[in-house]
Amino acid sequence: MFEELKKRTLKGTLAWSIILILAGVVLAGWNAVSALQVVTGYVDFSTLEPGKINNQVVKIDLAYNFACYLEEYSKNTKTNATTTTHYYYVILTRDGEELDDRFMSIKVPAKFGAELDDMAMATAEGGTTTPMTFYGKIKKLDSEEMYYFKDYLKEFGWTDEDIEAETLPYYIDYMWQPATLIYVVLFAAGVVLLVYGIVRIASAASGGALKKLHKDIADAGFTEPSIESDFRSAKFFDKKGTLRVGRLMTYYTAGSVPRAIPNNKMMWAYQNTVTHRTNGVKTGTTYNVMVYGETAPKGLTFAVANEAVAQDMLNHFNATLPWVVVGYSDELKKLYNKDRAQFLQLRYNTCEHTAVDPAQAGSSVDGQE
């Protein structure tokens, strides 16, 4: 039994664990360099040679710019009103201190527009302004952004050859300094996913995922050999055999973890049917068997394939576990929640909690929520 469950748990865990590991590797790998730059200190943009500019997280003390060439808008779909959200300005790498410097862009929120326009005016007149400090991630211009960048430069007589030789297809995407910590958060999230995926596989392979099942058995006072036999002879209520009812315990899977509830502690079981609708149109129905007991006072939900399976399981409970109230009514729900002692007098306290031979089963139940 336990070896079978260990193999089944490993198999069931493997697919999702691999997905978690791959997602973790991608997330951590994609953000590792940026996270390191944020933690150890932003790259000083003025120190970057044009050929080494790619995707760094940088700090720039901007003293010169060559005006705005592109505005980004947001549109209110109800009023059709537009609001400027960002501006793109032309800047020089290293502020033109080296012969090989290139023109590129910086994208900033609209609130900085007036100050940068003043800076652009001062630059055009050969003057200076107090540098403005920005933090951001270097990104590549997309095709539309590059089109407007080139179009702006061509207004001043630049040719495609000039643009190719004197510009870089990158921009600094402004970020509020504390917001750059998102790269650290994403890197950490990737590491967590990676470690969690590995731990899931290791736990399933070593049988660690069965710890809760072993505890369920021990808490119920049964020996594992007796449970081995009970598990083998239990009746299945799903194709994979993960939901089954024995004489001693009912076995199920919570997520990917095998669990069991002692039958002698069950109090109430009934069918719960949920109809799903989207925009008023029925999209499906799910069927569940609800089980309440001393070890599950708030109830356990066992999903089953259809109503026939739900009724089969409830009939099995009714026929083999005579101390369990089977079926639903609002009165039973009220009694269970408001007067548990009286509810237990219906069946739980009226007979020995010894399972009846399934061969004697023959009665049926009604009632569902």
What tags apply to this protein structure?
10 helices, alpha+beta, four-stranded antiparallel sheet, about 375 residues, 15 strands, single chain
Question: How would you portray this structure in words?
Answer:
This protein has helices at 2-40, 113-124, 143-154, 160-166, 182-206, 211-220, 224-233, 307-320, 330-338, 340-346, and strands at residues 43-44, 57-62, 68-75, 82-92, 103-109, 132-140, 167-174, 235-236, 244-245, 249-254, 257-262, 266-278, 281-293, 296-304, 325-326. With 369 residues, the protein is an alpha+beta fold. The strands form 3 sheets. Strands 1-2-6-7-5-4-3 form a 7-stranded mixed sheet. Strands 8-9-10-11 form a 4-stranded antiparallel sheet, with helices on both faces. It has a 4-stranded mixed sheet with strand order 14-13-12-15, covered by helices on one side. Strand 10 and strand 11 (257-262) form a beta hairpin. Helix 9 (330-338) crosses helix 10 (340-346).
